[in-house]
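Run log // design_07
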């Protein structure tokens, strides 16, 4: 491990105290602010310290500028020898669900969902429904994904969830101040109707790997960071708040949803010179037509990764170096708890709240969270943290050094990780660029560790990179490129992990990198069908174009055989008159399996296939693209 991580682990062993409580309840919880006055006083103290620091920095800058000016006015130095005119060489140092979800029972925001006999799609600022029940395939309804009469410019509508007959669209508005939540009604005939729009004050939630929203037991759950600007006139102007949209909405319409008694902090002082963030979990009740939300927030540094289990949201925050903290924020509104920890997870797939009452987290020595594209970054030595949920406390305790297991394989760019059954699997993509077929390809290790007993780590040698790891029931498949080809390696995960077989799709690459791009439909315990969007080897995934096709493979006892592909129709992309969300940040291609039928969502096309003579063949297709009136 790196020296910083080793030091932190040693300190955590010295700092941890007390025995673990029985069950999964934390032994102590964080204390909230007692009143609005107590919170206001604390913020004023922070502001005073930051002002003092700023003045000190400004004084130092002025002194430095004065010294530089004096140096420039001084007599010039004697001419250097001729040999000194040549610059030195640089030093060496300068070089049934239709969504593939992480946790059963925790639905994730996506671009396609199922409502009764209709598929509901979110694309390019609009909602669409297509009837698929009764062997139909027919567009039904479409509607703007934003409020009638509102200006959608500067807004992105990214994710969708469905609860009963309520469609929830989650977006982000740079013009209106945070997360935008649109509520729509959908009836049994697939007709859509606008209901209302709410704004939730937050910073930009975008992550290239994670999803902002979850649906757990009929409750809409958001994680959102809020950076506090203590130098503004009203520091509470950045606190969690909600307003219902109306044409003449003003900032004062925001009503706080996290009082001081639901805001928590640890005993650690904020980092001097670095931002302070309110890590906020908002839970909204969709049972009533007028949405009601409550928020719980904890103060911490900016870097974050979050993971949602069936009962809690875990937020991992990162300070400078490898000092970190992990917060456990229950969805029932009870008090959060925390642990001081070391290192940083890769993304949400680094977490597993296991049924034996433990939190398991794959760590790298350095990382800054998964905002934007940060989840692909990070570096340093790796470890597996495994701690009882009962060890979470009020912020004074650290995870003991004995709860970390050092792991091989430095976490490089684009590291992939996934818990499948009894195993944690992880590996790097290698060189993801297209290469010539006859070029030598360095073999890539895939690491497999049984997370529960922290036994020996296996390194399985693969002739391809690790770009995706997915479950096939209790087994797994690893997908990645070798030169111009796309490889699918099936893994048997028994007493030992072992490579079973490999399928190679020549001249191909993944068409989607998000977790929802893959879907596995099990048919028996050892059989099922895989679907994955692919491109040609010379193509590049584009944010404004559909994938070339969706490839389907049969898994039979981990033997992978091709069933065929359903392809997008080549040709000009239709003019849809797009007004918002005109870039497909969340992808636009998905394999779908419904009631024994097989579909491929490819941009504005929905293609149905059927299995005939061991091959998937196209049966029919529709376009659900909006029709833009022609102006003459």
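design_07 sequence
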């Amino acid at each position: 491990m790196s020296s910083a991580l080793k030091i932190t682990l040693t300190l955590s062993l010295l700092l941890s105290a007390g025995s673990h409580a029985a069950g999964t309840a934390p032994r102590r919880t964080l204390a909230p602010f007692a009143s609005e006055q107590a919170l206001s006083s604390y913020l004023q103290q922070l502001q005073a310290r930051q002002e003092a620091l700023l003045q000190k920095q400004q004084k130092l800058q002025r002194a430095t500028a004065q010294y530089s000016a004096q140096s420039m006015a001084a007599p010039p130095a004697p001419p250097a020898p001729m040999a000194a005119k040549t610059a030195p060489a640089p030093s060496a140092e300068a070089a049934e669900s239709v969504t593939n979800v992480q946790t059963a029972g925790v639905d994730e925001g996506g671009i396609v969902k199922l409502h009764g006999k209709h598929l509901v799609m979110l694309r390019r600022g609009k909602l669409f429904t297509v009837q698929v029940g009764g062997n139909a395939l027919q567009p039904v309804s479409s509607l703007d994904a934003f409020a009638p009469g509102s200006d959608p410019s500067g807004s992105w509508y990214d994710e969708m969830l469905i609860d009963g007959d309520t469609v929830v669209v989650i977006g982000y508005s740079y013009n209106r101040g945070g997360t935008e939540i649109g509520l729509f009604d959908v009836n049994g005939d697939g007709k859509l109707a606008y209901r209302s729009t709410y704004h939730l004050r937050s910073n930009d939630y975008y992550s290239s790997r994670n999803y902002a929203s979850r649906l757990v037991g009929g409750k809409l759950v958001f994680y959102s960071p809020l950076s506090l600007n203590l130098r503004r006139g009203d520091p509470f102007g950045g606190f969690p708040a909600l307003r219902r949209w109306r044409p003449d909405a003003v900032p004062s319409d925001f009503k706080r949803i996290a009082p001081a008694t639901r805001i928590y902090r640890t005993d650690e002082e904020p980092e001097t010179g670095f931002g302070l963030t309110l890590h906020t979990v908002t839970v909204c009740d969709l049972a009533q037509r007028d949405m009601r939300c409550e928020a719980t927030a904890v103060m911490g540094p900016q870097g974050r990764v979050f993971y949602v289990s069936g009962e809690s949201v875990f937020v991992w925050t990162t300070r400078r170096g490898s000092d970190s903290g992990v917060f456990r924020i229950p969805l029932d509104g009870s008090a959060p708890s925390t642990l001081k920890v070391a290192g940083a997870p890769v993304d949400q797939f680094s977490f597993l709240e296991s049924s034996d009452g433990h939190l398991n987290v794959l760590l790298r020595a350095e990382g800054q969270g998964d905002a934007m594209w940060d989840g692909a970054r990070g570096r340093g030595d790796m470890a597996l943290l495994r701690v009882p949920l009962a060890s979470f406390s009020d912020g004074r305790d650290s995870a003991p050094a004995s709860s970390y297991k050092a792991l091989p394989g430095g976490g490089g760019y684009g590291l992939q990780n996934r818990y499948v059954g009894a195993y944690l699997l992880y590996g790097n993509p290698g060189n993801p660029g297209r290469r010539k077929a006859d070029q030598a390809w360095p073999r890539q290790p895939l690491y497999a560790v049984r997370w529960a007993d922290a036994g020996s780590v296996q390194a399985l040698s693969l002739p391809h990179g690790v770009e995706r790891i997915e479950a096939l029931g209790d087994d797994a498949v690893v997908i990645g490129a070798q030169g111009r080809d796309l490889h699918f390696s099936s893994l048997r995960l028994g007493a030992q992990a072992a490579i079973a077989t490999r399928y190679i799709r020549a001249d191909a690459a993944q068409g989607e990198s998000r977790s929802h791009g893959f879907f596995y439909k099990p048919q028996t315990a050892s059989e099922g069908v895989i679907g994955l969007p692919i491109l040609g080897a010379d193509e590049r995934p584009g944010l404004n174009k559909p994938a070339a096709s969706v490839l389907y493979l049969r898994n039979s006892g981990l033997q992978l055989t091709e069933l065929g592909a359903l392809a997008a129709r080549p040709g000009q992309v239709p003019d849809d008159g797009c007004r918002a969300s005109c870039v497909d940040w969340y992808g636009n291609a998905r394999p779908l399996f419904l009631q024994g039928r097989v579909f491929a969502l490819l941009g504005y096309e929905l293609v149905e296939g059927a299995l005939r003579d061991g091959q998937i063949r196209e049966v029919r297709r529709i376009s659900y693209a909006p029709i833009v009136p022609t102006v003459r």
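The first strand starts at residue 107 and ends at 108.
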